Amino acid sequence: MEAYAEDLNHVTSGEVLDEDIPPPSVSLPKLAALLRVFSTVVRSIGERFSPVRGPPITEVYVTDVLNRVLACVTAAKQVQFSEAVLTAGNECVGVLLASVEPIGQLMEAVLAYGLDQLDCCLACGSDYSLAVLSLLTLIVDQVNTRLPVSFVERLLAPHSQLLNLRFHPEKEVCVPHSSLAV
């Protein structure tokens, strides 16, 4: 996953491309596939993928993987918009976030990531919008009373994409999510 993100960073930086470095049209679908596979594996493992159970799955490990996923998806988005990568990334962040309590820098990174993903909702299809809404619901549930006022203000501001999703053409997107009902 990180190798594809690194390849994408080479494209962004304008470095002379090596013949071995695939173009974004190759890297992005592979990155999306890896993110989907990782999410599927973590979901399949279920409760066993928990820092509470102890090594080898520790809080440090889950936090590290979550930070890496955030970085990879963000890097991919900077190179080329890919709804498939963003949707798979949001699902992956969601399954990882369910295993760790976001505090400090991780919480800030997750909140910024969630708001950044929300900004893309109207340009994407219903699958992406549903993935973002699920992610934001999970973030609100996980962070709970520690949500910064600035996050809530951006989420509920009159120009927020969340409010604009009320008018989405797909009915399933318009159905209020438990923690995000506005």
From TrEMBL:
Superkingdom of this protein's organism: Eukaryota
A Gene Ontology molecular function term of the record: kinase activity
Keywords: Kinase, Transferase
Protein name per UniProt: Serine/threonine-protein kinase smg1
